[in-house]
Amino acid sequence: MKHFLSQHNQIEDRLQTLRSVLTFCFGIGYIANVFLAQPLLALINTIMLVLAVILSFIATKGSTRMIAAVLLFVGASLLIYAQAPLDVWEKALLENGYLLAMFIMVPLISLPVRYGGYNESLEALFERFGNSESRFYGLVSVMTAFLGVLVSIASVPLTCEVARSSRFAGNARVLATALSRGFITCLFWAPTTATIALSLQLTGADWLSVLPFGLLFAIVAGFIGWIMTTLRERFIVGRSRAQDSSNEGNVDPVDTDLETGSSRSSDKGKGAGLSRPGAGALDHKKIAELVLFSVLYIVAVMLVGQCLGISIIVAVALMSILIPIIWMAAIKRTVLFKQKVKEEYVAVKLPNVKGQMILFTAAGVLASGISYSGVGEMAVTALLQVTNEGVLAVTILVMALALVCSAFGVHPLVYTTVIGGSLSAAQLGVSPVYLALLLAMGWALGNAVCPTSANTIAVSQLVERSPFKLALNWNVSYVLASTVILIALLWLGHCLALC
Q: Contact at 8 Å (CB) between 181 and 475?
């Protein structure tokens, strides 16, 4: 029996190694062919992708595989129904090749953030300035959004870890909402996120045109969350604390969990219930260094995309390879970088791309199937008839569908692909930028109320609360308020011909 298990593990390890090699080679080959444009290399890339996707399907389990299988089945069925030729199938498989190349390379950019020596200063920042619930919320939210541009969903546990140095880390609601809402703000504009990458891919919009409104949406959404937390702290929490003080004497305000009605001491042993005071000294140079690294990365992506005339998504993938190497050499941590590339990127991050490989390949096939079969045109016709061809009515309906689907646990990728693959900006009578912003808005805000999203699950595990409580209780009022205000801003931008 032990011999059989040993052989089974060896086979799994070899398949994982083969999958990782195929995945990485596809990423490099796809980026190279953006510049070379060789049909033979495109064919090789397609073969590597098919093999990598098959191996990824074998290795992936749970809802990710189920969602990908459904998307792939529906997309393939539409292509078969439309009798699509072989070249259309090849194009469908590579429809989201840009995104896959980005997902393969982007984990490299997280290594300088994790191992550049910034954690101690970030912890000290929280201990010094996170001295009220609203300030703590603001710091957590901003840091999660800031790091989310560089390390994606990994920003959630990373920020949670450094935030424990604040005494307010014991407040599960404040910590959870700050993490989840902070992360979604980077989904409005950051080219490193799947949200913006897929929205640009589906609409053909230019990222630099999306950037101003995307940043505005992120700032407004972040401000709404902070205002709601501040008002809750002043009126609801303040009133409750005053009542507790009059009834029971002096009570430490941090020791009362208003969500559960129990003392915070009952949360000892739970992840979010334990703050970790006593962080090191605040090194302003390290904070400035991290900010400089982020700015350098974003500026490099913009310049490379514009100067070389390539997609911003490809520029993100390319700079995710080059910038970490240059930066770690500049701060004299090259040896550590090489070690972490081997231990973390090759051994952990690269194999974990399997979920994105099957999801976004399947989404590309579905988008191609919707477009080639003509189903998209029928869906658009029905949508425009229901809304009487009104842009605002379509916008409200699309957002309503996104939020309802999310609340029922449908992954944002599904409805974004269906809506984006069916609805064109020209048919709606708007610019590609408007449609890209609408899709990104639906994904971002839907993410906050989706109990099955990676963001919600990660945060709920960190604070040891139900994902349904976080998504459908703590975040609902925030999402509804943000939806109304952001739709108004988007509509105003359309009326003024700004987007």
A: yes
Question: What are 257's strand-pairing partners?
Answer: 262
Q: Are 395 and 490 in contact (CB under 8 A)?
A: yes
Mean pLDDT of 79-93: 94
pLDDT tens sequence across 179-216: 999 999 999 999 999 999 999 999 999 999 999 999 99
Specify the residue for token string 């919320």. Answer: 137
Terminal C-alpha separation, the chain:
64
| Cα–Cα distance measured from residue 203 to residue 412, given in angstroms and rounded to the nearest whole number | 16
CA 470-475-480 angle, 5° bins:
155
Q: For residue 356, what are its two tokens?
A: 């994105």
**Closest listed residue to residue 114, CA positions, set 85, 77, 86, 155:** 155
Cα–Cα dist 452/408, whole Å: 9
Angle at 191 between CA 187 and CA 194, to 5 degrees: 60
Integer angstrom CA distances of residue 256 from 135, 163, 167, 236, 241: 18, 19, 13, 13, 9
Q: What share of the chain is helix, strand, coil (3-state, %, to 5)?
A: 80, 0, 20
* Cα separations in angstroms, 77 against 71, 332, 375, 379: 10, 53, 12, 17
The Cα 94–Cα 43 span in angstroms is 10
Please write the tens of the pLDDT for every residue from 338-397.
Answer: 999 999 999 999 999 999 999 999 999 998 998 898 887 787 788 778 777 789 999 999
What is the spatial distance between Cα 498 and Cα 348, in angstroms, rounded to a whole number?
43
- Please list, residue by residue across 312-325, b when 16 or more beta carbons sit within 10 angstroms of its beta carbon and e when fewer do: bbbbbbbbbbebbb
* Residue 262: strand pairing partners: 257
Rounded CA separation 170/136 (Å): 11
56-75: b (≥16 Cβ within 10 Å) or e: bbebbeeebbebbeebbebb
pLDDT digits (tens, 9 = 90+) for 258-280: 333 333 333 333 444 445 555 55
